[in-house]
Design brief:
By secondary structure, this protein is an alpha+beta fold.
Length: about 190
């Protein structure tokens, strides 16, 4: 199973991302755009993981998320990776309290303890991926993206649960399936639909 742990971006914020992308997509070089209906903030990409390892991982992750209060987040500011070079990934940033970095570190530690996972050495940079650039974008395209995503993007929101997702790759792009959901603060009320 190809797995990752994330926080889901709710519809009001997704709607604003969608509006900005639709006004921009035709003015940028070709890219593989993510499905804007399932935007998420990845905390940790695990990659291929044996299905037999999932229960132990899920138990560790449940304990991690239970220790955190829901986090106030807001999307804002666009950018690309790698910084200062032709772009391979386009993203929108995430404004967050310092607890998000602690949560991400604790999620990574849970994966180390349950799977023997080797965490990345680079510093975690909270972002929501928008597109992967097959042919790296040059300066003009990067500027169009950053201008389109300047300032805040959509309303603030509260992340109140983590999700372990399975990612299935297909010619039409990745498809995501929720494997487990981990509420933050066990007694925190579920968001009503």
């Amino acid at each position: 199973m190809r797995l990752f742990v994330a926080l889901v971006v709710p519809e009001p914020a997704r709607r604003e991302v969608r509006r900005r992308v639709e006004g921009l997509r035709d003015r940028l070089p070709r890219a593989r755009w993510v499905d804007l209906d399932v935007l998420h903030l990845t905390l940790l990409f695990l990659g291929e993981t044996a299905e037999t390892e999932v229960p132990g991982l899920a138990a560790k992750l449940r304990h991690v998320f239970e220790r955190f209060s829901p986090l106030p987040l807001r999307l804002g500011g666009g950018g690309t990776f790698p910084p200062g070079r032709p772009a391979r990934v386009a993203w929108v940033g995430v404004e967050s309290p310092p607890e998000l970095l602690t949560l991400q570190a604790d999620v990574a530690q849970a994966a180390v303890e349950s799977l023997g996972f080797e965490p990345e050495e680079r510093v975690y940079h909270p972002h929501v991926t928008l597109a992967r650039c097959s042919d790296p974008w040059r300066r003009e395209a990067i500027e169009k993206l950053t201008n389109a995503f300047s300032g805040f993007v959509g309303p603030p929101f509260v992340a109140d649960r983590g999700v372990l997702f399975e990612s299935k790759l297909s010619p039409k792009g990745a498809r995501y399936r929720e494997v487990e959901v981990f509420p933050m603060e066990e007694d925190y009320p579920e968001e009503e639909a």
